[in-house]
Structures are given as structure tokens and as C-alpha cells.
Amino acid sequence: MPTQLQSKPTRIFNVNESGLCTLLHKQPRGAHTLCNTRHTVRKDLHINTRAIHMAAKRGRTGQRLELGIQLRQLRENCGLGDRGGGLTRKQAIQGTRLSEAALQRIETGSLNFRNVGDLRKLIARYGVTDEAVIESLTSLNRESANQDWLTQYRGLMPAGMPGFVGLEPEARSMKAYHPTLVYGLLQTRQYAQAIHEVQKPVEETTSELVRSSVELRMKRQEVLTREDPVRLRVILGEAALRYPVGGADVMREQYAKLEELSAWDHITIQVLPFRWNYRATHDFAILDFGDALPPRVQIDNAWGALSTSDKPREVDRFSRRFDSMVASALPPEDTPDFLHRLQREL
User: Fold this and answer.
1) Is residue 340 a contact partner of residue 258, using CB atoms and an 8 Å limit?
2) From start to end of the chain, where are the E strands?
């Protein structure tokens, strides 16, 4: 038997043998180092208990996503649907005031329950009767409804972006690619200001909106300087470094910052030069949360909104793209010399 962890009291939870514990903990029995909980395998109840221990540590976006994952897995693994499978969203919402679209948004972490009664109806419909589990889910919903630091910026961001930005602090590592601009987490204030200013007349934005958008971008960069920083690996297309944003002085400052950041242990910057090789035609980012949450990929679309997905097939597809560009890009140790050459050309 595994050694019992002593940091928290042990509680016995029931889980379905093929359900959440195996999927998300990847360890169906014994003591879990992530949540310090012992699980026994039974057939009568299934629930991932990680939310009970981690809700207080998450930001609001992470809490909504955590709740959505819990509910989606319960719905898909409840064994109460056709032929003993899971329930469809249409079947799940019967008897509630929810629409299928609302349940989808809840399960993807972009919405929480305004009426806790609907949450309790869903939990009951999925066959969950353990009061501790019910309380953990309702508490997670209650906490996720509170305002956080992102609230003041939500009106500045296109559709989908608040969810992505809210999850950045939850990530352990990130991979990002941009073919035409310096990636946002690496931008100087003057570079970010110039980007927003040049877009101002076309997008019909105000000076106040520009100011707030720049402040948000600087705020997001705190994930790189906090005590336990996100590990970041970025590939920049050569065009991203040659595009003269804001003029020579702005670019000199930006080059200097990239050189400084490339020397940090938790940041890796590579340049994809102008030569024939594989390259994605649009920017994207991949967030890895370790064992806490499934990895997610984020992409932009032509309407300025962001799309994210935690589907393994999509995450794997973009991971292959990134890895192919890593192999084609200049080695990280060549980045400072490349930046020096660009500085001399200004």
C-alpha cells in the first residue's frame, strides 16, 4: 500500500473505475500527491475530488474551468444515457432553466451558474448523492462568481480572450508562436503602445482604451516575474523582428528586452528565419497546467476573437506544428547575435 500522506486528513471518496480519477489524476488508487486524498474504486459514485482541495488556489477563470470539467466528465460518465452511456447536453438540461448553449459555456469555463438550484439539479441528474461532493461543486461555483483582477479589463478584450488571459497565471508552461509581431508577454510598454496607436484610427478606439489595453498587457507579464514564474518558450518569425513598430528607438528597446529575457532560465526565445521550411501561417499559444487541468491551445480568428480548445486532437496538432518550427528555427543561443545584427541595421 502507498505511504499515507500526513499533511491533510484522509477522506475516502468513491470513484468510477473508468471515470475522473483515472482520467485526471492518472492514478486510480492510493494516495494522490496532488490532492492528498485516498480513493477507493466502487461502482456506485464517481467524482474527481481535486476541486475540494484546489478551489482556494485558483483564479476565478480557473475555478470556472475546473467546475466545467467536473460537470462535463460527470455528464459523460454517469452511465444514465442511452445504452448505459453518458447524457447529451439536451438530456442533461431537462427540468432546468438552462439551454444547451448555456451548459456548453459552463462546461468550457466561460460561464457559471447564476441559479444554484440548476447546478444541484444537474448534480442529482448525474447520480451524485455524496453531500461532501455536492458541497464542493456548489462552493466552487460560488467562489468563481466573485470578481477578480480581470473584471476591470473585460470590456477591452475580444470574445474569448478573458478566459485565456485568466488562465495564463494557472499555467506551468507556455509555448507560443507569432509570425509578424513580438509576442505580447515579451513586449516593451513602448512597443505595445505603438501597436495600439497604429490600430487606433482603423479600429476606432479611444485613447483611454489604448491606455487600458497597454496596462493589461503589462499586467499579464507578471506571470514571468513572479516567485514561481511560468516557463515560456516562444518562436518569433523573422518578420516579427523586422516589422518597424514605432520607429528605431522603440525597436532598439524591444531588441534589448528580448536579449535580456532570453538569458532568463525560464524563458526560451527562437527566431524562425526567412528561409524555406515549415511555418504556421497564424499565431497560437499552448498552455500546459501540469496535472491540474488539461492543456489548451489558443488561436485568433479573422473577427478578432480568440478560440480555445482542450481537445487532445487539437492540442496535439498544434504541438506538432510548434515542434516542427522548433526544429527549423535558429538555436536559442543564436538569438542574441541575431538581435545584434538587427540593431546594427536600424
Assistant:
1) no
2) 12-15, 30-31, 38-41, 173-178, 231-237, 267-272, 284-288, 296-300, 306-309
Measured CA to CA, the distance from residue 223 to residue 172 in angstroms comes to 10
What CA–CA distance (Å, rounded) separates 45 from 128?
A: 6
Cell matching residue 285: 499559444
- Paired with 235 in beta bridges are 177, 270
CB-CB neighbours of 310 under 10 Å: 18
* 298 touches 284 (CB < 8 A): yes
Q: What is the mean pLDDT of each run of 10 residues along the chain (346 residues)?
A: 33 32 33 32 36 46 77 86 84 89 82 84 88 82 64 56 74 96 97 94 88 90 94 98 96 98 97 95 93 86 72 95 97 98 94
- β pairing state of 296-300 and 306-309: antiparallel
Q: Distance of CA 18 to CAs 23, 54, 76, 276, Å?
A: 8, 22, 11, 47
Q: Report residue 41 as a C-alpha cell.
A: 474504486
